[in-house]
Amino acid sequence: MTDTATRNPLGSHAASDAVRPAARATFDWLFVVAVLAVIATFIRAIYFTPIEALQGPAQKIYYVHPPSAWVAFLAFGIVAIASLGYLWMKDMRLDRLAESSAEVGVVFTTITLMTGSLWGKPIWGTWWTWDARLTSTLFLWFIYVGYLILRGAIEDHGMRARYSAVLGILGSLLIPFIHLSVYLFRTLHPMPIIGKPSKPSLPNDMLETFLLAFCSFTLLYVALLRARYRLATDRAALEAEEGR
Amino acid sequence: MPDTLGAALLIARKDLAIEFRTRTAFFSAVVFALLAIVIFFFAWDPTAVAASDLAPGVLWVIFTFSGLLGLHRSFGVEMADRALDGLLGAPVPRHAIYLGKAMANLVFVLAIEVIAVPAVALFYDMPLGGAKSVAALAALMILAAIGLVAVGTLFAAMSVNTRLGELMLPMLSLPFFVPIVIPAAQTTARLLAGRPVSESIGWLKILVAFDLVFVAACTMAFPHTIED
């Protein structure tokens, strides 16, 4: 209704960074480097890091699951910041950044949920339990899947950007509340053993692999975000060319 | 500020007058709530679980779902004859439109609740206890309804403009209702079991914090959803 007279969907500066798809090199160096880093992490985790005494090989999830969860939180944090920035500056590039980060974040949340489930079966004896962290991660997933569906349900560019920015900000305000309420409900998740005030209670071998995993996953996030952002930019450029 | 509040009250009165004269949304929401209460009863084995144990959960699930029906209507009614354009053209702050809509919705969901609570008490053999526990329950209802309506009104304003808006509203809102439903259902169960209110203080704090944060955030966010 209100947005029938659309502004230029590309925003003010977009024309300069919108390279025609054909004009860009098809080889994404950053992505290749990130994938190699993740593979190196996995090789180190599988072959060169000791097997944990109590959990056995199942503990190797440690080099996938917490880094994915970290990336998911990072991604949704960026969604919230980009959304806030969009409402402030109305720059479509920030909207595309939020969109890209949300999509990558949903992928990593899915990985977090699935790897957690795989670990839970041998260690807790069940694929799923209504533990606080599992439940809040599941709702995290619901919020941002909803975010992506909302984007798909709005035609107008300006309206889509504003609505999803509002949801992106409210979603980040909601997460602490969900976590607190399901935490009070019940929890049996292992407590963090790195970020605690005393010294990390992890052998050096494991700690190094763990930190390596965090770095390589973060690099993968940046690479995926960059690739997805380029896609969004190209898509906007094509739509502008088609005169929409 | 008195200007904003006055305008908000005027808008709330307008919405409630429309609703009071037609009563379609209210009656369909009430019938929906009653039907859901009855259908829920057949969803489990009554010999295994006492009906009164399930009553708090049923109450809050039904409250949220029938509340959604009312929330959807609150902006749906403005779409006919482009009434919303008239509202936006009125010389009132945008915040006032949101607050007015939210107040009307608050009355709407509380009115549903006034019918749903006795119905659950009746069908589920739920002991309401003395005047003190009824008063505590009423205060809890209001706290929960404020949070529900704050978020729901904003999403209702957004979802009327989307494809399949009637599906979009619950999909967006329900995750936001989690920190309302969990504390509310937990507190209800404790109140009905005759436990003192002090046992539920932690839950009530979450509800109050949710109300404060989301009433403020949604009031600030609303102008962005109707900008033209």
- Count interface residues per chain for the largest interface: A-B, 31 and 38 residues
**So how many helices of chain B?**
8
Overall, the morphology of chain B is globular
Radius of gyration of chain A: 20 Å
Q: Terminal Cα separation of chain B, in Å?
A: 24 Å
- Domains of chain B (count): 1
Structural class of chain B: mainly alpha
User: What integer value in Å does the Rg of chain B equal?
Assistant: 18 Å
Mean pLDDT over the residues of chain A = 82
What layout of secondary structure does this protein have?
The complex is a heterodimer of chains A (244) and B (228).
Chain A: H1 14-17, H2 29-47, H3 65-89, H4 92-124, H5 132-152, H6 157-185, H7 204-241
Chain B: H1 2-22, H2 24-41, H3 51-79, H4 83-89, H5 94-123, H6 131-159, H7 165-192, H8 201-225
Helix pairs in contact in B: 1-5, 2-3, 2-5, 3-4, 3-5, 3-6, 3-7, 5-6, 5-8, 6-7, 6-8, 7-8
Summed up:
The complex is a heterodimer of chains A (244) and B (228). With 244 residues, chain A is mainly alpha-helical.
Give structural notes.
The complex is a heterodimer of chains A (244) and B (228). Chain A has helices spanning 14-17, 29-47, 65-89, 92-124, 132-152, 157-185, 204-241. Chain A has seven helices and no strands. Chain A has one domain (27-46, 57-191, 203-239). The relative contact order of chain A is 0.19. By secondary structure, chain A is an all-alpha fold. The model of chain B has no long low-confidence stretch (mean pLDDT 86). Chain B is an all-alpha fold. Chain B has eight helices and no strands. Chain B is globular and about 55 Å long. Chain B has one domain (2-225). Helices cover 82% and strands 0% of the residues of chain B. The two termini of chain B are 24 Å apart. Classes of the chains: A mainly alpha (244), B mainly alpha (228). Chains A and B meet through helix 5 and helix 6 of A and helix 4, helix 6, helix 7 and helix 8 of B.
